[in-house]
Design brief:
heterodimer, A: globular, B: 5-stranded mixed sheet
């Protein structure tokens, strides 16, 4: 069974551009979570989607947004990129009941 | 969100047990205690979770204090592959979000 897949693996952008990151959850999982992990820091919760709706949001500015598609895959969009947005962005999925989160390997975003 | 406190780092010798403490004095009655670990260049992976009783699985054991204000993750025989950052996390049973702290960096010596 395929795990959580994220694309691209690496993404290089310049300040002011927009970045789009993609995530495919494990088959049957309806919840998708996005986390940001800056170098040397812990994971910061960004967004949680379930059944196509945004359920919870972390303490990030509105230029961080996303959506979940009918097949439960998800996109994270970061507008007006800033240098401090450089980080590893991790996606996780879970079944609707509280339990394990399964993480992908992440997208390394570098903003130059 | 209720917070957890973990030591920054711990060292162990290969094939010896590792006891990772976690303090969560403000835990609420609906908070589950979760442990995840993150190996280098990978996303976190689930290790174990519990509510009140001690839990065992093939990866580790979780010992929960009677007052639930602390817990200990036990790796029974550390291997080099267990070198990772270990995160102790509280998860409200009504909220599917996980909030990660800085974790404990475990180093295993051969």
């Amino acid at each position: 069974e395929a795990g959580v897949t994220q694309s691209p693996t690496h993404l290089i952008k310049t300040r002011g551009q927009q970045a789009t990151l993609r995530c495919s959850p494990i088959s049957g999982h309806t919840s998708v979570y996005w986390y940001q992990q800056a170098l040397g820091l812990g994971l910061q919760f960004l967004l949680w989607y379930d059944e196509g709706e945004e359920r919870n949001r972390g303490n990030f500015p509105p230029r961080f947004s996303g959506r979940q598609f009918p097949n439960y895959s998800s996109e994270l969009n970061v507008n007006a990129l800033e240098l401090e947005d450089s980080a590893l962005y991790l996606c996780a999925s879970s079944l609707r009941v509280p339990g394990k989160l399964f993480f992908g390997s992440g997208t390394q975003l570098s903003v130059l | 969100d209720a917070k957890t406190t973990q030591p920054n780092s711990m060292e162990s010798n290969e094939e010896e047990p590792v006891h990772l403490p976690c303090n969560h004095s403000t835990i609420s009655g609906t908070d589950y205690i979760h442990w995840y670990r993150q190996l280098p260049s990978q996303g976190p992976e689930y290790v174990i979770h519990g509510l009140t009783s001690n839990v065992n699985n093939r990866m580790a054991s979780l010992a929960i204090a009677e007052d639930r204000k602390s817990s200990t993750l036990i790796l029974h025989r550390a291997t080099l592959r267990d070198a990772a950052v270990y995160y102790c996390i509280l998860r409200d049973g009504n909220d599917y979000k996980l909030s990660f702290g800085a974790g404990t960096t475990v180093t295993v010596r051969a």
